[in-house]
Amino acid sequence: MKYFLLVISGLVMLSSCGEEVIEFRPTEKFNSIFDSPAEGISFTPLDAIATDDGGFLVLSTLVDETIFVLKVTNRGDFQWSTQLDPQFVKAVPNLVRQGDNYYFIGSSLPDYTATLFEINDLEQTIAALRSYTAYRRPLAFNNLNPSTYLLLTYNDTTGTVLSKVQDGFAMEWARKYDDITNAHQKLKDFRNSNETHFFVGSYNAGSAIYFNSLKEDGMSLTYTNDQGMQTGLVSGSNKNMMNSLNSYGNGFLASNYVVNNQSFFINNYQPVLNDTVDLQNFSGEVIQDRLRIQNAISASFSLSNTEYLINAYSTLDGRVKLSFYDSLSGELLAIKYVGGTDPLEIIKMIPTRDEGLALLSKITIAGSKERINLRKIPKDEILMLL
Question: Taking the model in full, what pTM does it have?
């Protein structure tokens, strides 16, 4: 069904007053909060992707875990939104694009079967396209390369399953790594007592795959070859675990992680793909001002033909801290804080067509109202930092 939102927007732009389409300029910026007039509604944004018209699709869940999709214009205004039927729940990152449409993975009740959904932005519709029978409790979804995909699920008896999905979204192969009794209950118990971060991705042109998931001894990062055969492991525990991993440059990785209740960040890391390494042996820098129970993410970003790495996390005072690094040397170049009175939790950084940077966050208003916040930092403002 359609879902109508109020938009609280701070907008700075150069434009005329007509109804004609106006080109999106690099000097434009916006800061929009998408609110709901209904009582008891809370939004948990999960991911966002840029669209051809310069706007954004935002994937979220509601408090009852139903799925909500929002379309935002290139100026941060509400365009359309849809809430899926209640039998579809628990969407997972990421949104991916194929052709003119966009896709994501969620679950179908009652058994939490992994289900592929298609978003048609032009027609403003969302449809359940395919169910992957016997693959339950999806955790993450991402590109392997521009035309194939990786799906991470957690089945009842095996635990983590990694699958490769073909161009037409048929499954090519699936690999299990453990045999865990009552795996679904172990996953539920772990999520109830820990801040969990499940993700899947690849680098080196898809020749190396990684995924972060719950194994028998706790959360671990697993490396595999392009056929899903395990080659290495970064072992964690129930309390020592990775929060995010980003590949960039020539095989470098950047990661936010927690060891012994202390937050760390490491960049320019070259992984050991064919060995087992303990997360405690990583040599990252201590992050003293991070609010550890919330997200910490990194992303590569191109500006004026120069590659940068940006790390982002929520600080203890509720703002989001952006740290800009030289992608080659790993040197810290600049820091920018965003946010104000109402606490923010960073969800996604999205480079824009005009070399600006959009930030998707969850904002908590008046201590309890969780809403979607999307803001854009224009290119000119970033250049002034660097």
Answer: 0.90
